[in-house]
């Protein structure tokens, strides 16, 4: 994914601001519909098509930048979520938000099936797993989940969340399965 160089000085600050604004608008637009066109995003962002294309020459560039930004924001949110909620509630909320991001990603279809896209998605795995580790440690410290859980195992296990529907019935099912999963994660491992 190539990004043209941004000029130095005051124009650079404006370019960074424009880029962030476009990413925010695109994130919202893609959440509504994975087929939103770049021209619609430019119009919603209040920028010309040329400005959008200078930052994101292709639709894939924009999609990957939105995905990377959203996942990084989610990873960075762990300390704040833990500061606002008890650890187990933070765990629930964080995974529900991750599921929403993954659903949007799946809704973008072929745009995320290129080798470059897989590289971006793979690059998010380690930070996401580290964020899960922070949540698990906080839950273990307060006794809401057992200690010693492997973050990669828990991330894989929680994958059910993005396989349930986004409609009310799917969200209800996800909530039930979440509680079953938490029950299993809080119990000691049975000896063989």
Structurally, how many domains make up the residues?
2
Head-to-tail CA distance between termini: 50 Å
CATH fold topology of the largest domain: Tetracycline Repressor, domain 2
H/I helix tally = 10
Instruction: Please tally the β strands and state the result.
Output: 0
Helix-strand sequence: HHHHHHHHHH
Mean pLDDT, rounded to whole units?
86
Percent in strands:
under 5%
CATH architecture of the largest domain, please?
A: Orthogonal Bundle
Radius of gyration: 19 Å
What structural category arises from helix and sheet content?
A: mainly alpha
In short:
This protein is mostly helical and 192 residues long.
Report on this structure:
It is a single chain. The protein folds into two domains: 1-57, Homeodomain-like (Arc Repressor Mutant, subunit A, Orthogonal Bundle), CATH 1.10.10; 65-186, Orthogonal Bundle (Tetracycline Repressor, domain 2), CATH 1.10.357.10. The protein has helices at 10-32, 38-45, 49-55, 59-76, 78-84, 87-107, 115-123, 125-141, 151-157, 168-186. Helix 4 runs antiparallel to helix 6, helix 6 runs antiparallel to helix 8 and helix 8 (125-141) packs across helix 9. With 192 residues, the protein is an all-alpha fold. The chain is elongated, with a radius of gyration of 19 Å.
